[in-house]
What we know:
The protein is α/β, with parallel strands linked by helices and 308 residues long. It has helices at residues 10-22, 34-41, 62-70, 92-97, 110-141, 165-180, 193-199, 202-220, 246-257, 261-267, 290-307; strands at residues 3-6, 28-31, 50-54, 80-84, 102-105, 162-163, 184-190, 225-231, 234-239, 274-276, 280-281.
Amino acid sequence: xxxxxxxxxxxxxxxxxxxxxxxxxxxxxxxxxxxxxxxxxxxxxxxxxxxxxxxxxxxxxxxxxxxxxxxxxxxxxxxxxxxxxxxxxxxxxxxxxxxxxxxxxxxxxxxxxxxxxxxxxxxxxxxxxxxxxxxxxxxxxxxxxxxxxxxxxxxxxxxxxxxxxxxxxxxxxxxxxxxxxxxxxxxxxxxxxxxxxxxxxxxxxxxxxxxxxxxxxxxxxxxxxxxxxxxxxxxxxxxxxxxxxxxxxxxxxxxxxxxxxxxxxxxxxxxxxxxxxxxxxxxxxxxxxxxxxxxxxxxxxxxxxxxx
Length: 308
């Protein structure tokens, strides 16, 4: 794994180099500013598998750098881990909104860093396998190919507050039980997603899910929220509003999706039908895990298919 680390503190970069080397990650490039990092990232001769970005830097901070990296077509899916000494949650959410995949604190804990980089490694390997398969099919048939499974939580780009599924899980984990109890989790299920998946190619399916994501993002405003596509035609949103009415949201989503009806009819793709689950919350004094909370929200949306 080739890593680019960006931090304005040269002493910390020396420490980081030592920690990563002890974990077996020795292919590390260090720079002191966002402008230096962007110069490297814009140069196609430089290949990187992961970015480690400090949030607090003079000039261009790490969140702005993250946002600019995501705007680079060749780097928009590069794994980004934010590193910072700031503990306040007010700095965590903007980092994930800007496109960060994960978040660790200073001082660096070796075990935590090892866990994060292993997750990054798994993500890289999965993308490499898919890229190899897509390249092979593209060569064989001479057409652009996107190869995804129905269960896959594929990344939906350029959609408001939508982030990677793994990034949303990581964000929820950073909140801790006290802060997590102040958020609600609500799921949205495209009831006919399997039919949509079977009626078109992968690109058409992803485009359709992106349209659904944009509609969900719109109806959840103006409340603060983050959304992720979980695969299987399902979306999970973390919200701070407690007054969400699932039936009202369904009606609003149905009305908004109607504008795509003519296009879907022409393409022979079923128009998405979205079911909305109940808002789930973690109790302050319970031990509900993030995965369990997300599962309960998704199950609630699935149950509504039979109820309504």
